[in-house]
Amino acid sequence: MDWNPGYWKKSTKLLLGVATIWPVIYAFLFVAIVFATVMYFSLSGMRASADREEIDLIQLEQKIQDRQISQLLVKPNEIIACDQSCECEYHVSVTNKETRAAIIRQALETDQSGTPRVAKVEENTSQPRVSPIGQSEA
Fold first, then answer.
1. What is the pLDDT along the chain (138 residues), one digit of tens a residue?
2. 1 partner at 20 to 30 Å CA-CA among 22, 47, 62, 113?
3. Are residues 25 and 58 located together in one domain of the fold?
4. How far is CA 134 from CA 36, 90, 129, 130, 138, in A?
């Protein structure tokens, strides 16, 4: 084979050009796909949190007393409250067991007719047991 490009066929020159430019095209495509994926997931996360509001314990207690909450989901580190229309979620960070118990008691308090302040209260406070490294569970 002659290494002088003047004697090469047109198909050989074209193949060499494609082989030379392909890594650059691939790099741009890769970056574009990664960027598009990150943007897609960050925008979908923003849409999901649009109906979510962070409130504190005092605001949650007031909403429970005013019967603005239709349901509570109590988790180990937070309480998620849903308003009467179930269009808005209120998230409250709570790590203390006694505080969670007090909120649940307040939500389950009944009025004269016997209906609780919050219609539905779910507790999901179980945490998986994790053993310390180097110790076995008996």
1. 677 877 888 888 888 888 889 899 999 999 999 999 999 888 876 665 556 778 888 888 888 888 888 888 888 888 888 888 777 788 888 888 888 889 889 889 888 888 888 888 888 866 555 555 655 554
2. 22
3. no
4. 43, 40, 15, 12, 13
Which region, left, alpha or beta, applies to residue 114 given φ > 0 means left and ψ of -120 to 50 means alpha?
Answer: left
Q: Do residues 23 and 59 both lie within one domain? A: no
Domain coverage including residue 65: 52-123
Q: Are residues 38 and 69 in the same domain?
A: no
State the CATH number of the domain containing residue 76: 3.30.720.210
Of the candidates 100, 104, 102, which has an alpha carbon nearest to the alpha carbon of residue 71?
104
